Amino acid sequence: MTPLTVFITGASSGIGAASAHAFARNRHRVVMCARRSDKLEAVAAQLRAEHAAIVHTVELDVRDANAVERAVSSLPPEFADVDVLINNAGLSRALDPAYANEVRHIDDMVDTNVKGVLYVTRAIVPGMLERGRGHVINLGSISGREVYRGGTVYCATKHAVLAITRGLKMDLHGTPIRVSTIDPGLTETDFSLVRFEGDAARAEKAYVGTQPLRPDDVAEAILWVATRPPHVDVTELVLMPTVQSSVSMVARDS
């Protein structure tokens, strides 16, 4: 197939980095965005070494609407026509009840998980419409379909991502632009480490005694969704590890 230009947020680690590898391995051009420029450049160097990848990196905080606009408008010509947008940047903070969430944690989750998705979508979709092609893939979560104790704000943001996905699909009705959400269950990434602000011992407990998804598992699903024939839109895909039956039901070794 014709190489795609793929714009990935949160590409310095986890599912974002794995997605960059998956697309680069299949000879697609990749724009990698993240706040942590050192880690971003390390992943990009690996892509170039392993896959002879055509990669462009952008240090970007998706919470900053002006920075998003500047980043998209200043892409080099060979990366400017984005075919696939992967809104992957997202995070969770703490496990507090809704009435006890710290304001900084609320802001981090809402600004990144909801406003960041909207800012990047707003910057890229008009170009897709002009070119008459494109695909927006949002990284949701099974927490966007269920709620768990201590995760009220995070779950609310992921419910919002599902609503944004469904609404954007309606906004683009009658156009060739596809819209999808990939909603993974338990996946072993830096997610819990970020949630607990670097407390590795606490973060590791989320994965002890069980077999979660790996970032590569989710990345392969994203690649598959993005490479369906143009008339096929996989609008919603829920991806769970076999050991998981709901957001709060995970089988673990006794």
Care to describe what's here?
The protein has 254 residues and is an alpha/beta fold. The protein has one domain: Rossmann fold. Helix content is 44%, strand content 16%. The chain has nine helices and nine strands.
Which helices and strands, and how do they pair?
Blueprint: E1 5-8, H1 14-25, E2 29-34, H2 37-51, E3 55-59, H3 65-73, H4 77-80, E4 84-87, H5 103-131, E5 135-139, H6 152-171, E6 178-184, H7 191-195, H8 200-204, H9 215-226, E7 236-239, E8 244-246, E9 249-250
Summarize the structure.
By secondary structure, this protein is α/β, with parallel strands linked by helices.
Keywords:
254 residues, alpha/beta, Rossmann fold, seven-stranded parallel sheet, 9 strands, globular
Q: Which homologous superfamily in CATH is the superfamily?
A: NAD(P)-binding Rossmann-like Domain
Would you list the SSEs in sequence order as H and E? EHEHEHHEHEHEHHHEEE
Instruction: Look at the structure and give the mean pLDDT.
Output: 95
Strand content: 15-25%
CATH architectural arrangement: 3-Layer(aba) Sandwich
Number of strands: 9
Tally of domains: 1
Largest sheet: 7 strands, parallel
- CATH names the topology as Rossmann fold
- What is the 3D form? globular
What is the CA-atom radius of gyration, in angstroms? 17 Å
Query: Given the structure, what is the number of helices?
Result: 9
Stretches where pLDDT is under 50 for at least 5 consecutive residues are none
